[in-house]
Amino acid sequence: MLGRLLDGFCKGLRILLGVLMGALAIPVAMQVLSRYTGIIKSFLWTEELATFLFVWIVMIGSVVAVWDGTHFDVRITRNATSPFTKLIQNGVVHFAIMLFGALFLFYGVEYAEFGGKQRSVMMRANLMITHISVPIAGGFWMLLSGYRLSQEIALFRSSEEAVS
Questions:
Q1: Where are the domains of the chain?
Q2: What is the pLDDT tens value at each position of the chain, 164 positions in all?
Q3: What is d(CA 119, CA 151) in angstroms, rounded to the nearest whole number?
């Protein structure tokens, strides 16, 4: 049940990523047209908006990557063959993601508060708009990696029972 809920949530995030990518194309196109063609007037706020959108795209994309298992991990040993060593290999990765998620969540709150005290130069937008993405992503990394770790443990237990 929780797995279906999280999968649906990540499907929604993928749709949001598509919308944000489409939205990112607008200020970037405006920047290109103004710089290289002179067709439209140069607007300085487009660069800030593109930065805001890009930060959210990266953080949301990292959450989806954790769910899909397409995040970055390095194998320093060959792929495990036994259920126990598979649990150790994958468990270390999930635990490390949970640890970094906890760090991003814990220190990201202070970072977001810092951003809440600042405004962007051109748009005069509160910078918490982008800074809040750090603790949010960290929280979701913890949640999704914790779920994946519980799946790995359940898979190990079921393979252990099958052998018995």
A1: 2-163
A2: 899 999 999 999 999 999 999 999 999 999 999 888 878 887 889 999 999 999 999 999 999 999 998 887 777 778 888 889 999 999 999 999 999 999 999 999 999 999 999 999 989 999 999 999 999 999 999 999 999 999 999 999 998 777 66
A3: 43
